[in-house]
Design goal:
Layout lengths: L13 E4 L16 E7 L7 H9 L2 E7 L2 H9 L6 E2 L3 H9 L33 E13 L5 H7 L13 E4 L2 H11 L9 H17 L3 E3 L2 H7 L5 E5 H10 L3 E4 L7 E6 L8 H11 L2 H11 L6 H9 L24 H23 L1
Parallel strand pairs: 2-3, 2-4, 6-7, 6-8
Antiparallel strand pairs: 1-3, 5-8, 5-9, 5-10
Helix pairs in contact: 5-6, 5-12, 6-12, 7-8, 10-11
């Protein structure tokens, strides 16, 4: 689900990393074998893949996707991978459609090192998935421009406050945008009520027609780090990076509730190297690999020791790194194909309205 904080890949869609001839594997158990890893772009630590290759004498081919739907379409088309990293609602869908292999947890002893703080209702017993990163969606804001009082009183409704007209970013995602609107209206982000979805659509229309927002994706990271606008919607890991770059930036999770999400590693039915896939999942869950991942990317590690160490050191004072709180209005997305279609259609209309408003 999640977006990008490290500046790597340089636009590449595929990267093959091989074991160099000067490297000596710590075990030859997987010598000559290849693991196909399908992940979000810029969502892995600098040394995780190379260190795994060195330790196990294998080769990892990494490919990247920018949405759960893109990943799902490729699997449906017959592309084969050994480990993929979908988001919670997509894992729920793939389980229902028998697209995933059950895990052999005896081969993943590092599963015991993962925190129980996050919700994994989509797979509570980790029968099919092992958490990779988790986080939330919130408001990133310039503390020199935005009143904390406004944030506390208005929450997501601050994106209708004329005080900040022309100084806001919205995120180009129907799911996250409708979450914001539904929460602002006091509804569940998992509603299938057509009136509530229509209300959320009208809320978003009002925002784009009256607030002159800029609708962006990953551009928000550098732009907010440079305080080019007053506030925007952002993922918590991106907020952690932004805050580490600019001490005047804050992160706020509205009391109306928000999305708490989890991306997790799974083995698809198409995997041709299941044993190596288990080895990789276990390795990524280890302290060293999880630390490399989380410190580099900025999203919260599911490894309890890593999470605590980073929270108290690299990300000390950055509340976006540990987004779990006691708020019963926070939710995890459920998969619903019909509401997804409705949201997608509405969001297309919202973007047309935003484009027309900007021309006028």
């Amino acid at each position: 689900m999640k977006k990008l904080v490290a500046l790597v890949l340089a636009g590449a869609t595929m990267l093959m990393t091989g074991c160099g001839s000067t490297q000596t594997a710590e075990t030859d158990a997987y010598k000559g074998q290849t693991l196909k890893f399908y992940n979000w772009g810029e969502y892995v630590g600098e040394n995780v893949v190379a260190d795994f290759e060195k330790q196990y004498g294998c080769k990892v081919i990494s490919e990247y996707f920018d949405s759960n739907e893109m990943m799902y379409t490729k699997l449906q088309a017959g592309d084969a991978y050994d480990v993929i990293v979908p988001s919670d609602y997509m894992i729920e869908r793939m389980k229902k459609e028998d697209m995933l292999q059950p895990l052999d947890k005896d081969k993943i002893p590092n599963l015991s090192k993962l925190t129980d703080k996050m919700s994994c209702d989509f797979d509570p017993d980790h029968e099919y998935s092992v958490p990779y990163f988790w986080g939330s969606v919130g408001i990133v804001y310039d503390k020199t421009k935005v009143s904390k009082k406004d944030l506390k009183e208005e929450g997501f409704n601050i994106f209708l406050n004329q005080k900040y007209k022309g100084d806001i970013y919205l995120y180009d995602s129907e799911r996250d945008s409708f979450m914001m609107a539904l929460k602002a209206l006091g509804y569940s982000m998992n509603t299938d009520n057509e009136k509530e979805l229509a209300d959320a659509y009208n809320w978003l229309l009002q925002s784009v027609q009256t607030m002159s927002p800029e609708i962006v994706t990953d551009e928000i990271i550098d732009n907010m780090a440079q305080a080019r606008k007053a506030l925007g919607i952002v993922y918590s890991g991106d907020a952690a990076y932004i805050m580490s770059e600019n001490e005047n930036i804050g992160f706020y999770m509205p009391k109306q509730g928000t999305n708490i999400w989890c991306d997790a590693m799974v083995i698809p039915q198409s995997s041709k190297n299941v044993d190596l896939a288990h080895e990789f999942i276990n390795y990524v869950s280890s302290y060293d690999a999880a630390y490399d991942n989380s410190s580099y990317v900025g999203y919260t590690s599911p490894n309890t020791e890593v999470m605590n160490d980073l929270k108290n050191n690299d990300f000390k004072g950055i509340n976006a790194y540990d987004p779990i709180r006691k708020n019963n209005k926070d939710e995890v997305f459920n998969y619903n194909s019909e509401t997804r279609k409705i949201m997608a259609n509405y969001w297309a209309k919202v973007k047309i309205a935003a484009s027309n408003a900007n021309r006028n």
